Amino acid sequence: MSEKDWRRGDFPVLREHPTRWADVDAYGHVNNVVHYALFDTAVNAWLIEESGVDVRTLPAMGLVVETSCRYFAELGFPGVVTSGLRLARLGTSSVAYELALFDGPAGDDGPPAAAGRFVHVYVDRDTRRPVPPPDPVRAALARLER
Amino acid sequence: MSEKDWRRGDFPVLREHPTRWADVDAYGHVNNVVHYALFDTAVNAWLIEESGVDVRTLPAMGLVVETSCRYFAELGFPGVVTSGLRLARLGTSSVAYELALFDGPAGDDGPPAAAGRFVHVYVDRDTRRPVPPPDPVRAALARLER
Amino acid sequence: MSEKDWRRGDFPVLREHPTRWADVDAYGHVNNVVHYALFDTAVNAWLIEESGVDVRTLPAMGLVVETSCRYFAELGFPGVVTSGLRLARLGTSSVAYELALFDGPAGDDGPPAAAGRFVHVYVDRDTRRPVPPPDPVRAALARLER
Amino acid sequence: MSEKDWRRGDFPVLREHPTRWADVDAYGHVNNVVHYALFDTAVNAWLIEESGVDVRTLPAMGLVVETSCRYFAELGFPGVVTSGLRLARLGTSSVAYELALFDGPAGDDGPPAAAGRFVHVYVDRDTRRPVPPPDPVRAALARLER
Predict the structure, then answer these.
(1) Which residues of A touch C121 (CB under 8 A)?
(2) For domain B3-145, which architecture applies?
(3) What is the complex's ipTM, to 2 decimals?
(4) Chains in contact with chain A (at least 3 beta-carbon pairs closer than 8 A)
(5) Pairwise CA distance, residues B81 & C38, whole Å
(6) pLDDT band, residue C66 (cuts 50/70/90)
(7) Virtual CA dihedral for B52, B55, B61, B63, nearest 10 degrees?
(8) In this complex, is the C-beta atom of C56 within 8 Å of any C-beta atom belonging to chain D?
(9) Cα separations (Å) of B39 from B64, C25, C45?
(10) Checking DSSP bridges between strand C60-71 and strand C13-18, what pairing results, if any?
(11) C72 Cβ contact list (under 8 Å, min separation 6)
């Protein structure tokens, strides 16, 4: 299925992000950089809420090693953007997510304005060596996988 | 009344702003700069929604000439911040707003995490000379004043 | 050649970007989103300076349709990051750039901290239909290609 | 002396900040929020460089309790902004700085585009109770005061 055919219903986790005035650039639309701020927020807010722990205090941390985004339609201000989040691949120490951004609230319908990918590798906070995701994260990912 | 005594109920306009992962700085709290991004969003989203026109297309634009913020408590991620907006003073070409940021959704209660001031001067887009606020803005401000 | 083998000398355009306090996230390193703000800056500053025109005033605008980044090493604050920019592919209406970010000033040496891709499609500002890049942009790209 | 009469030469610490594409808002000028990102950067980069320690690792941290800015002229992209930093007042646990932003590099001359104030209160990282600035910070401030 092409990314352009993704819909809100294809994602187990949806989150609403109101846009901010400063998100808009000289062309009057949400700047391409902001999409990654929403991806980052979607992943980390879900991780913290679903795992029940503040992931920033765990001995292993998720380092972002790869991100990408394709842009299909412009987003504006004021407005609400809904992110969709799902698991793409769970490796030994890495976790790849697929994300989409939809214009409008979670209850709307329609094609995505953007679609992307976000890859964490878990590393020991001190040695920065790859390690498996910490237990509370693994448990949350197992629920996302189903 | 001290700014620390301001409550959500003292503001005619409330708006919820979820925090973003990138809002947090090296100290783990929402960076002092982000408060101004929320002020800016509160003022401009209200102006656009209440006036019914995209203020960016009007012949006069609101130039920000003065802002300030006092910080009383830390804000975090994930979380929702509620901004309160009210009119402080309406001049010939200037509009001063008072704003507060409250930790938690609009329905919560409690003291502000921050309080500030935001002053627009309306100028002609071409000459940059001060002019009265455009009619749709004046009408919106009149409703805010009551 | 692997992206990790890219060096400053492989890029015809280098630009220094001091990091900002707010670039750093809760993990104490430059947030993954900021890399895209530097890519965006590298491309647009070069376009404006090399073409000699403010690209924002042209009848055709570059819409960002695809971006990606791979992260190899952490960046910090305070510090200077050097971006390298080169042309990857020039299509009828699209321009793909390759970018790298290096820790330290332009005169330093060493492997990249990140590498990415940034694709513009030129569209008519009014109709949003694809068009060839405007003449001053084409001339700048021709010089970059050599 | 009015803030509009401040010049680069009135500040013991100057720092150059290139603007970024994402700094510019829908009106085509640097958004009012960005000025605070530059203030923050000017203060913290100077503190880290002048004290010789990473202030983020000290047992006491500087909490921002008050900031303000007055805007006199628009800033643009691409461009370089020079910040000027000086000590306004050193209290038992608080440090107030005065800052100005000048359009163009440090070697240029001319009136400020903006002027502001930035106040840190040092607190114990665990108890968040006010404490005197840590020794390396005090030593740096003593040199700034002269």
Answers:
(1) none
(2) Roll (3.10)
(3) 0.96
(4) B, C, D
(5) 29
(6) very high
(7) 100
(8) yes
(9) 11, 21, 29
(10) unpaired
(11) C3, C4, C111, C112, C113, C114, C115
